[in-house]
Amino acid sequence: MFSDLPTHPADKILALMQIFREDPRTDKIDLGVGVYKDATGHTPIMRAIKAAEKQLWEVEDTKTYVALAGAPEFNDAMVALVLGDAVARDKVASIATPGGTGAVRLGFDLARMANPDVTVWVSNPTWGNHVSILNYLQIKNRPYRYFEPATGTVDFDGMIADLNGAAPGDVVLLHGCCHNPTGANLTADQWQAVIDTLLAKGLIPMIDIAYQGFGDGLEEDAAAVRLVASSVPETIIAASCSKNFGVYRERTGILMAVAQDGGLKTLNQGNLNFLNRQTYSFPPDHGARLVSMVLTDPALRADWEAELEQVRTGMLDLRQQLAAELQRLTNSDRFDFIGRHRGMFSMLGITPAQVDTLRNDHGIYVIGDSRMNVAGLNAQTVPILAAAVAKVTTGD
User: Fold this and answer.
1) CATH numeric code, 49-296
2) Closest Cα to residue 128, out of 27, 290, 13?
3) pLDDT tens for the 396 residues of the chain, in order
4) Cβ–Cβ < 8 Å for 95, 276
5) Among candidates 289, 381, 305, which has minimal Cα distance to 78?
6) Is 361 exposed, middle or buried (0-12, 13-18, 19+ CB in 10 A)?
7) Which one of 124, 164, 197, 241 is at 20 to 30 Å from 35 when CA atoms are compared?
8) Which CATH superfamily is domain 11-44+313-394 in?
9) Angle CA(352)–CA(371)–CA(161) in degrees, nearest 5?
10) Strands 92-98 and 234-240
11) Where exactly are the structural domains of the chain?
């Protein structure tokens, strides 16, 4: 039997991580893997999470299962964090999931259960696992134009033109903030135009929000999600706690099904519970418990928000520093978009051959499509990256 199993291509990010580990150079720089790193290259446990974990150790007296949907306090706290008061809680069904990826996977499953012939429209480019999961599930998917590499801006006219070709009932996958891999976000006016298109064409938005708090702030990063969810009849939302709470290995996420018709909540909740039961039965609780403790304890929440703001502004400072250094070295504004982008990622807009040169000649690792993790930089490595990019793009 095992000899009949198919082979699968290696994940490009995981493959790059392996090459990086095997590189003997001591001055190499990893800008490929998508995790936050501080100035020392470490991914720390956030102070509030550490404090909550100590509290939990003292009071937790059982490891029995929680509910199929996960702990109610986690669901309530996360729905409030993402949606605020934009949508009444009695219109939102939700389940805890193993990370944001688990939420995305079950969100696709939910869409297919509702419409077996559904087509999911995905931005070009998008996070690589989106399309991989859709293909594995044999769900039809099509790209819509999103990014113009030459200018580092959103190809909004192309996006709307492509979405106008979608059929009623199709799902449109949107990034709530800090678009991965480009870092280029829609403006408020563009979000409204997307909503107008969704309504006119009868399309269902599915929003993946994995970086709330990493862009312009907790409330600002949720604004688009809240606007969409309060404006269209039905919305699917997948949210991750990996980045903004730093609980990567705890696999903590949530899937929400929002229906303006409040009478659908019971039906939606039943289907979400069913998906959890069929996939892994009860969701993990440790990370979710820590997140809910942080969000509901005023002191822990204040400390978490303060540390998250330091993370956000630190990445913005790195972006500004890199954009300014590249402008100085290239004597052009070609890379100014880096300072305007938000979140952990930007695409440099260089060729695969130039990406190879960065790796081979300079020990700088970015993804083949030129996506780099800004959080992998620090004040000392920004000039090194800028000098290398200037050299491979100008030949100087």
Assistant:
1) 3.40.640.10
2) 13
3) 999 999 988 787 888 888 999 999 999 999 988 899 998 889 999 999 999 999 999 999 999 999 999 999 999 999 999 999 999 999 999 999 999 999 999 999 999 999 999 999 999 999 989 999 999 999 999 999 999 988 899 999 999 999 999 999 999 999 999 999 999 999 999 999 999 999 999 999 999 999 999 999 999 999 999 999 999 999 999 999 999 999 999 999 999 999 999 899 999 999 999 999 999 999 999 999 999 999 999 999 999 999 999 999 999 999 999 999 999 999 999 999 999 999 999 999 999 999 999 999 999 999 989 999 999 999 999 999 999 999 999 875
4) yes
5) 289
6) exposed
7) 124
8) Aspartate Aminotransferase, domain 1 (3.90.1150.10)
9) 95
10) unpaired
11) 11-44+313-394, 49-296
Catalytic annotation, residues: 127, 208, 210, 243
Q: In degrees rounded to 5, what are phi and psi of residue 27?
A: -105, 15
